Amino acid sequence: MLVKNGLKEFFPSIKPDLFFKECRHQGIALSDLDKDLLEGVLFWKTRRAKSLSLSIGAPSSPLVFNFILYRFDNAISQLCQSEGIVYTRYADDLTFSTNKRGAILSFPPKVRRILGTLYDGNIKINLRKTVLSSKAHNRHVTGITLTNDGKLNIGREEKRKLSAAVYRYASQMLELEEILVLRGKLSYATFLEPEFLERLIRKYGQQVKPDWPCNHLSALVLPGSHSIAF
């Protein structure tokens, strides 16, 4: 069974005071000048906002929110380990999974309690983004489909789109920019599911575009993308 949670308004909820509190917890001493500089670099204020919050889209922001959630990750990982639950996080998306019947159903309140204790109620779970799933239904985590036999794939619909794009590539109907996009997507799909590339080769043939540097279908895949098999 699998439960997915999202954090509510995660970037706007991270204020300078919360960031500096986590710095103190980690033993990082900051002068007033340091704080002024970090506020100006890491945080912003929209026109309608009354206070500074973590900048959305800034290259520094992922590092900051991972730093903020460091204590939460440790606390929730220890709790999950004791209860036979696997915890993973991608940005503000939290995923909990287990094979123990009933263990996951009582877990969301524990997550909210830990967040409230660590961050004084400033970081909360978005209840509208809570999803409960099991093997009886399609399970998706950050765009990846989890199969019932323990494997990962990109999903039927994405495979259909990729196959259609390869057909257009083989028919010399793609522009250079579209070919580069296809190369990235095909490399990602092959990393997750190496046998998908083999099926495409059987369907369209290995040599698909003689006048293009990537004149073999397997050459479209970035080096190392199919080096890991699940």
Radius of gyration: 23 Å
Shape: globular
Number of strands: 9
Indicate the low-confidence ranges by residue numbers: 209-213, 226-230
Helix content: 40-55%
The chain-level mean pLDDT equals 82
Largest sheet: 4 strands, antiparallel
Strand content: 15-25%
SSE run: EHHHEEHHEEHEEEEHHH
Keywords:
230 residues; three-stranded antiparallel sheet; disordered C terminus
Description of the molecule:
The chain is α+β, with helices and mostly antiparallel strands and 230 residues long. 45% of the residues lie in helices and 16% in strands. The chain has nine helices and nine strands. It has helices spanning 10-13, 16-25, 32-42, 61-68, 70-83, 107-119, 156-170, 176-192, 194-204; strands at 2-7, 43-44, 53-54, 86-90, 93-97, 125-133, 139-141, 144-146, 152-153. Helix 5 (70-83) packs antiparallel against helix 6, helix 7 packs across helix 8 and helix 8 crosses helix 9.
